């Protein structure tokens, strides 16, 4: 298959994205009743729950996590973090950021009086103050009750961070903030704000709602690469490669040139959509370069992480060598992914050797590094080595997390040591760690094999 077909540069008609007048943003300051919300098509603020405002959509409340996903952090988070860092920090004064104390306690912020907050030059304090107030609301209270008080003088960029920070704990509350802003015409619609709420919904697995908001708001904010990238990221998380292709084609049709974030997102979607074909990684890298863009560390990490998911050592090594040939310096994420792919391919010695080389490359192992190495030896049933890695991990200041316990349960289950597996499960609960879907899947598989 030609790479141009893989990346979808031929531009077919996109009837799915033709906008009708009904999709245009129509902001009204009035709140609607529940019955009115089910019939009126206007995109208006309501204090009802999202399921009432959008009764035709399905909302996901849980996330399904595979064993390997726990070993490999979500690549799309890294792609979006880079994009957000560039866009959201563009208007933030560097001097303000330097004087901010990252360890500023919530209680200290709360004790700041209104006058001090209004005069505060530190945007982080303003954002943290509102974020705390919103997340402290009871279920029957509303975001508007906080924001209507105008306790702090906020900029549009400040509000983007509020949506982002609130969304890390509650996508519903973040959506309330976004809707409140839609009533204030001096803040919304806004490309940066739209991209922010789309990213929040994508991370919360609320694709249907993200599509609804994008479709209604996109005509009003114009053709901006930031918004398209955010919506592409929503699709990429679920491996919806064809949808990402469609958006990329739409960008080109409208004269909006894709950037490196666009290509990184597209590559991530392709890798999640199905098995890798031979030399796919090199083909994708070549296509990015033919577009006049130089692949960066995130491009390479996305590809190597994809190889790790499929236990495709040959392709991972090709991409890693291409990275070295083009003078792109690997980072800890790169080495973690390579350790993971060695381990998943049954090459624990190679994984350990790469682990030992981290110090000479001025990198310090993190929890992901240790868990990836742990899995390499757990896969081959090396109990002594697993215990040794666990001890070193704790000595280095890392605690055993869900990933660690799941891997050890998996090891004992494969060996038929079901009593040991159950004991690790009990240790996991007593340590305060919460068993997840992976834990129970591994336990069930283990007990099933014992019959």
UniProtKB/TrEMBL annotation:
<dbReference type="Pfam" id="PF13041">
    <property type="entry name" value="PPR_2"/>
</dbReference>
<feature type="repeat" description="PPR">
    <location>
        <begin position="401"/>
        <end position="435"/>
    </location>
</feature>
<feature type="repeat" description="PPR">
    <location>
        <begin position="331"/>
        <end position="365"/>
    </location>
</feature>
<dbReference type="InterPro" id="IPR011990">
    <property type="entry name" value="TPR-like_helical_dom_sf"/>
</dbReference>
<comment type="similarity">
    <text>Belongs to the PPR family. P subfamily.</text>
</comment>
<feature type="repeat" description="PPR">
    <location>
        <begin position="366"/>
        <end position="400"/>
    </location>
</feature>
<dbReference type="Pfam" id="PF13812">
    <property type="entry name" value="PPR_3"/>
</dbReference>
<dbReference type="InterPro" id="IPR002885">
    <property type="entry name" value="PPR_rpt"/>
</dbReference>
<feature type="repeat" description="PPR">
    <location>
        <begin position="259"/>
        <end position="295"/>
    </location>
</feature>
<dbReference type="Pfam" id="PF01535">
    <property type="entry name" value="PPR"/>
</dbReference>
<feature type="repeat" description="PPR">
    <location>
        <begin position="224"/>
        <end position="258"/>
    </location>
</feature>
<protein>
    <submittedName>
        <fullName>Pentatricopeptide repeat-containing protein, chloroplastic</fullName>
    </submittedName>
</protein>
<keyword id="KW-0677">Repeat</keyword>
<feature type="repeat" description="PPR">
    <location>
        <begin position="296"/>
        <end position="330"/>
    </location>
</feature>
